[in-house]
Amino acid sequence: MRCLSKPISVFIVAVTLLSCFSFLASIVSDEPALERDPELPASSEAIIEPTFIVSPTSAYVGEVITFNASAESDIIGTNLTFTIYYDYFLSDGSTPNPDSPTSVNVTGNPGRAVTEYIYSQPGPVSNNYYVRVYIDDGEAVRYITKRITIRNNSAPYFAPDLGSALSAELDNETFTASLNMSVVCWDKDDDNLTLIWDFGDGTEPVVQWTGPAVAGVECVQNHTWSPDPEMWYGIGDTDIIYYVNLSLTDHLGHWKNESTPVLIGLDHNFSPKGNISVLASVVDPTDVVTIYGNASDREGEPLTWTFVFSNETEVIRVDVFHTGLTDPGERVFQNTSCVFSVTGNYTVALHLSDLALPEMQNDPDFSAHNVSVGQIYVSSVNNSLPYLSRISVKDCYTGKEDVVLNATTGIALVRFSVQAADLDGEIVYATWDFGDGSEAAYNVSVGGTDLDRFVQIHEYPVAGQFNVSIVITDGRPGHEVMKYKLLNVTSLNLAPEVRSLRVVLSNSSYGLPGSVVRFELVLFDNERDPLEVRWDFGDGSPVEYTNATAFDEDGRVSIVVSHIYSEVGTYRAWVNFTDGLYGLTGYHEDSYCSVVLIDVPDPVIVREWDWWDYASLTLFFVIIVMLVLWAVMGSLKRRRIDMLGVTAEEYLLRKKEVEEFDKRHMREEGSG
Questions:
Q1: Most CB atoms closer than 10 Å: which of 147, 314, 315, 538?
Q2: Sheet arrangement for strand 255-266
Q3: Phi-psi group of 98: left, alpha or beta (phi > 0 → left; psi -120 to 50 → alpha; rest → beta)
Q4: Please, are residues 355 and 372 in contact by the beta-carbon 8 Å criterion?
Q5: What is the pTM of this model?
């Protein structure tokens, strides 16, 4: 039994040592050799491969420095304490600084401490600081020392700058002004600089990067200013002022700001000219009277139009309008209308201004730009509107008001009639519009105050809905009277129907995003009329239109469309269809809906094994084999004991007696 168990034990030890060596090889560090503090206890095996990384190792005052320390101890279950001294030595470079800024971080094992620190002044020894980290696992301490360089940084500056003031010439055609500007940016520390140009007109600031600037870098910009139109500045002869603001930074807290005015000269501005007119000076109190105005401006500026309506004693109404920029000297038109409902005499005056601000229009200093161009006179005298009855409709074939396409002729013959009169005895003129695009028809009365009947007969070759109207007038402006009637011409035609709508998806019950969804629609129309089909797929995509004309002998037609849904979701796809006709049930239009599910299957994640997975599985099987061997050896041992004819307890007792006898015998021999 001893000969069998010893090789197995040796094998287990070998496997365990091999695993430990593989683990140690995986954590080998490239850090430099460690320094040991002679004043502190240290163990060469207590902390395994500590590291300490400083980034950056050279910086300016005010920049952020990152310190990254990590270690692992062979004491299982212990905590690691990382103590970082950011200024470990005094100015002599060798004496520990008792006032050094310090940070302490306690972590698990293994552990890592990451901190940040900002130095407010240069290093005490040739601009250098020495940083030391101590790593304590409760039984031993290791430390690492690093050197970093911190220098002062100076502010950037301009030489030369933009100057005390700049001038830009105004382009009177485009009303813009352009200017080339140049500055030279310097930095004694050769830092990369950022220059921000703000042109003072609300446009987006421009950012320029100089690169290293110890030798000076010229920065050039061209900018175009677009001032507000001239009417904001009165009569001109002045300067429009913008301020160019420059901001220069080295991103280390140093800024240089300058502001320079830009002067844009504005020429003299001329006032507008205009005219006012009306077609008739004598009108009816019910007439809608149009007042016509026109004007021009030498600079083409926006205009403010003010129409002032007055009766014989006071102002009764004011209309104000605005027109935009035009070409210089271009004539523009602005009309307004009014109903002088009370008989009497009226005056309408027109005032023009090319000043946009109301307070400037009321300022006497700018009165030259507020021009009164004239006035017209209107007299309102009573005159009655013509009378017009409602439109009467009859089907010429049936004599009924319901109009139906005749089964023999295929047309609808309709009789329209109205009654009209003018209480002033004037001739009444009637104009008919039958709503089907055909030419207008006309009637004229004989005059007088008696009622006149106007009759028209019209053919409609197709069913549909038509807006029939008639307009009568006595010839006076504003004395037009209109009546209309919505006419439905129906037929015995039957509406189309849906026989089926099948949705074919990529995954049977649902479709994948980006896959093609197939819609198979079957419609039926008894008369086989051409059908218009509109598809709304419910995902916000444009509506699609298709036409159906290829009917089979049973009156069925199949339509197939495809669509791609790009996102997961549940969509309602609508199909609307019509033959464009009116039947006994009204207009033939119907819709049908189907629900479309777009989804993705649950993902299948396949994990790849690494060397640790295989090593763990091998170790597991080795342990199982060892347990099986142990059980087999125990069974063999027990069987051998049974063959001796004793129990296991008797065997162990006998073995113990033999061992004690051997020990006593050896003692006796030694004493003899």
A1: 538
A2: 166-168, 255-266, 238-249, 192-198, 206-212
A3: alpha
A4: no
A5: 0.33
Task: Give the residue, 281 or 590, on which the prediction is more confident.
Answer: 590
Name the average pLDDT for the chain: 84
Name the strand (E) or helix (H) holding 17. helix 2-26
State how far the Cα of 499 lies from the Cα of 108, in Å rounded to an integer: 73
Tokens 């030890």 -> residue: 13
Q: Which two tokens stand for residue 106?
A: 């306690």
What is the Cα–Cα distance from 425 to 396, expressed in whole angstroms?
33
Token pair, residue 207, equals: 């950012």
Q: How far is CA 228 from CA 232, 296, 328, in A?
A: 7, 20, 16
**123: DSSP letter:** B
Residues near 240 by beta carbon (within 8 Å), at least 6 away in sequence: 170, 225, 227, 233, 263, 264, 265, 266
Rounded mean pLDDT, 142-153 = 90
Closest CA to 579 of 533, 639, 516, 625: 533
Average pLDDT over residues 51-64: 89
pLDDT of residue 101: 95
Instruction: Give me the mean pLDDT over the 611-622 stretch.
Output: 83
Cβ contacts of 238 within 8 Å, gap of 6 or more: 266
β-strand pairing of 273-278 with 170-171: unpaired
54: its two tokens: 């400083």
In contact, 231 and 302? CB cutoff 8 Å: yes
Q: And the tokens for 377?
A: 């006179």
- Report CA Rg, the chain: 51
Residue 218 confidence (pLDDT) above 90: yes
Strand pairing report for 157-158 and 111-118: unpaired
Neighbours of 170 (CB within 10 A): 19
Could you give the C-alpha distances from 276 to 242, 333, 350, in angstroms and in order? Answer: 40, 10, 7
pLDDT at 8: 38
491 confidence band (pLDDT: 50, 70, 90): confident
In this structure, what are the phi and psi dihedrals at residue 486, rounded to the nearest 5 degrees?
-90, 115
* Local structure of residue 220 (DSSP, 8 states): E
CA distance 236 to 21: 91
> Hey, which residues does 464 pair with through a beta bridge?
489
Name the residue with higher pLDDT: 366 or 667: 667
The pLDDT value recorded for residue 364 is 62
